Each structure stands twice: as C-alpha cells, then as structure tokens.
User: Fold this.
Amino acid sequence: MSEKEKMLAGLEYDPGDEELLILWHHAKDLANQYNNLASADLQAKEELLREMLGRVGKRLWITPPFYVDYGKNIYIGDNCEINMNCIFLDDNRIQIGNNVLIAPNVQIYTAFHANSASKRFCKAEDESSFVFAKTLTAPVIIGDDTWIGGGAIILPGVVIGNNVVIGAGSVVTKDISDNTIAVGNPCKVLRANK
Assistant:
C-alpha cells in the first residue's frame, strides 16, 4: 500500500513520501497562482480551481487567498461561497454539499497526530534531513444549506449535517446533526434551525 493510499484510508502515513510531496508542492503552486490572479479574471480562476480541486460544482465562488494541502481531496457542490483566508488541509476527503456558505478564516483539518510525543516522529536518516511527523487522517463532511461562521475550526472526522449554522469562532470537535444552530468551543447544539 502506498503512502497516498494509507493517507486516504486514514492509516498512519509518512507525509514526507516523495509522491505525496510532489502532489503537495503542485497544489501549493496552483493555490499560489489562484491567489495572485486578477480579481475579475473569473475564467482563469475557474480553470485553476478545476485543476486544483477534486470537484468544482456550478456557481462556486472562492475569494482569495485560499490555501490547501493537496486540493484534489476537496469536493464542493453547487452554489457555494468560500470567503477569504480559508485553510483546507485535505489530507483526506473534504466534502462540501450544495448551497454552503463558508465565512472568512475558516479552517478545515483532516490530518492529526498521535498525542504521545514519542509516537509522533520518525528518526532522521541523517543530520540534514527534515523529519515529518507521523500523521493520521479522517474525512470532513459538510451537508447542504449550511453556513460556517467566520473563524470556525472543523476538526478531523466531523460530519456537519444539512441546514446547519456553525457560529463564528466555534471549534467543531464532534458531529453536528441536521437542522441545528451550534456554537462554542467545543461546538455544541444551541437550538433547532427551522
């Protein structure tokens, strides 16, 4: 099993793997190009998004700057808006439904590391080698008709349902059910969303 296959399966993998680093650098280059395009150059933006992401739905609007790890593991539905300065660490699948609003400074993480420091790092092959931390992943899924408030952080493995509002600054550590408004750190359901 390749390191990429391990990564997508949620198994411990080495992010310093040559294949993964090539994909990672390619995505960073595409994101950099996207972030530096003229604001009104909508055709070039769409072309870059189609090259960078796994799926680009109809009527997608992403305001730069926008940051990804691999890009290809991000699947976005129709009629979505992602505002500026969002960070999507897509070491596993990030699936975003239709009619989703994502406010500025939202961070979506699919990667995490062991709690024990002794289990986090491999040994360096030589004195000049950078040693990446051993990494695990879990997908993040965001349902239809959902609004993620500014500065929210969504942790690995979280499923956010349909017709949900996540309050600004929330840290989403557990699944959030359909038709709810949830806020806080850790994020908890406040009330029903009608």
